[in-house]
Structures are given as C-alpha cells and as structure tokens.
Amino acid sequence: MAHVAKRNYYETLGVDRSASDEDLKKAYRKLARQYHPDLQTGDPQKKAAEEKFKEVNEAYEVLSDQGKRQRYDTFGHADGQQGFGGGFEGFDFGRGGMGDVFGDIFEDFFGGGRSRTERGSDLQYNLELSFEEAIYGKDVKLKIPRWEKCQECNGSGAKSSAGIKTCPGCRGSGQLRFQQGFFSVSRPCSQCEGSGHIITEPCTSCRGKKRVHRERTLSVTIPAGIETGMRLRLSHEGEDGINGGPPGDLYVAVSVKPHSIFTRQDTDIICDVPVSFVTAALGGKVAVPTLTGETIIKVPPGTQHDKLLKLKGLGVPSLKHNRHAGDQIIRVKVEIPTKLSARQKEILAEFAKESGMTLDKDGDGFFEKMKNYFE
C-alpha cells in the first residue's frame, strides 16, 4: 500500500516557521471555522471538511506545544513516538491555549451563553431645527419613549423573591449540553433563556418582562454651528439593558429647514443682494440683511454682476475651532431696469455714444444687450 506523505504543519496552517503563538492561534481559529464538519452541507463536502478539520487540528496541537514544536522542527514527521499524526488522540482540551481556542470557536458556532446580560437598544430621535437655531445653537427638551428597568421589581420580573424558581430544564445552570459532531457543547437553556431560573409569580407592573415602556423628557444642548446630517450621541440614554446589561445610546439626528434669504456653505453664510446698475457702476452704499439685523456695506465703483463682498465674522460658528466663525458673503446681483423713460434712454444713449458703442435705431437693442450681459 502506497504511503502518502503528510503535509508540512506550517503549510497546513498557512504560517511560516517564525510564527508566534498568537499567529498560530489566529490561523487555527480561521481554518477551524472554515472546515468544521457540522457547518457543511451535503455528504461529499462534509467528508472532505472532516478530513481537513482533522489535519488542521493535528497541526495546531503540535505547533502550539513548545516541546512538540521543537521536536517537530528538528525531526519533522519522523518523530512518530511523540504522537504526531495521531489525529485527536493526543489532544489535551483542558490545556490553556487549545481549550480557549475551542471555547471561542464553539461560542461563535452555537451561541454559547457565557453572558446572560443583554445591552439595551440604541435609539434615534429626528430633530428639525430652523436655520437660526442651527447657527446659534439651542437648548431643547426631547420626549423619548423607551424601555426602562422596572422599578417595582428592580428588573427581576418577579412579584417577590418567592416568585423565582430554579429552572427545571437546566437545573439552574442556564446551559444545556448536547452532542454536536465530535464534541459535547452547550447552549443557553431555551426554557429560562440562560438565566437559570423561571418566574412563577410575575411582577404586576412589568408582567415578568423586567422592563416597562415609558416616556422620558431629556434636556439636550444643540451646539452652535450644527448642520443637516449630523448626529449627537448621548451615552446611556437609550433603552435599559436586560439582566443588568448596560443601556444603549440615544442619537439625535439633525435636519435644518431652509431659509428664505440665506444659504450656508461650510461656515459661511451666503446672501444675494440686488444692486442698481447705477450703484454698481458709480459705487455707493447698500443696506443688506444679516442674521443679527440690517447693516450697510459699501459697493465699490465698477462692481460686476455676481461680485462677492465679505462681512467678516458674521457667518457660522465653527464646531472644530471655538470662538471662530465664518463670514457672510454678499453676492451682488446687478439689476437692469425693464422700463425706461424717454429721458433715461436719451442719457444712456449719450453714454453709449461717449463709450463708442453702436446702437440700434430705436435704441432698444442696446438695453437688451446690456440686460443679457448682466443676466
């Protein structure tokens, strides 16, 4: 009968010879999950996975033991007296490294009940703010409906201590052991949900659920400069956990209503201001709105359509840099008159002649061209 040479243990685990204990453990966990027979479907796949699973376990059993690894590095598979290639016969599942690895893997596979507590759910509150509220911030009161620990029974779910009995299914351990493939594993008892006890006399307030649904009012400070799409996280303000588990968090999702005059770009506030073509040409003063009231700005002579003028420090407070605010940007919109008197046309015609412009016979072509230019 032909002898089939065994594959190098390091190759089996996909590591090199200098691999640390942690490297070996990580490689083994990954492969053990991949080839565990009980996770396969179909007889051919399961049989192939079973052989691979044995090979992976054999390689790790040797390389995770310093003494066996040293002998293997020296003699290879020739050191048959040391139990190399013995499949599961030489395994010590009680040993620290191997036992920890298998415990972690089975917990991933079968839902091992190492923890009976459960973290509370996170909640989200959708908050709509006005443009001004988002810019300057605001203190708001939010009404939050959530599950909280029952104060009547202190989260036990029972009317009294006499109403809590040992679970007959698991006899108080909270776990049920059963055979799964090669190994005997455990999972939380379904009768008591892993708690080890059952409630025979439920609390009249929560009816044995251990939590009650209530609406709480929370005071929340909305920071100045917040904008649509941002979320505030309030730690431990979500729903209470189960069996003493930590509470979840509350997220406040912000949306900002649009303003009729102002728009926002990062920390700048942008506002379109109409200016007559005379003021744009000769310069002058124009009243402009700001979030703090009206102010006067100077328009330089020869200001062009869509020219940007800046009011420093009248923008949005920065969330990243305290006491620093952006600017308000005035975007000049030069207005072209749609109706002109005969005298106004005459004056503009003289201006055009002085400037070397050519006018249509009735003069209207010039005003149309001028209007189109500024639009």
Overall SS class: alpha+beta
Kindly, what is the distance between the CA atoms of the first and last residues, rounded to a whole number of angstroms?
A: 94 Å
Oligomer: single chain
- Along the chain, the helix and strand elements come as HHHHHEHEEEEEEEEEEHEEEEHH
Radius of gyration: 39 Å
Spatial strand arrangement across the major sheet: 10-11-15-14
The count of helical stretches stands at 9
Helix content: 25-40%
Proper CATH architecture of the largest domain: Sandwich
Number of domains: 4
Query: The biggest beta sheet, please?
Result: 4 strands, mixed
Overall CATH class of the largest domain: Mainly Beta
Average predicted local confidence, pLDDT: 81
Contiguous uncertain segments of 5+ residues: 80-97, 108-115
Tally the beta strands.
Answer: 15
Proportion of residues in extended strands: 25-35%
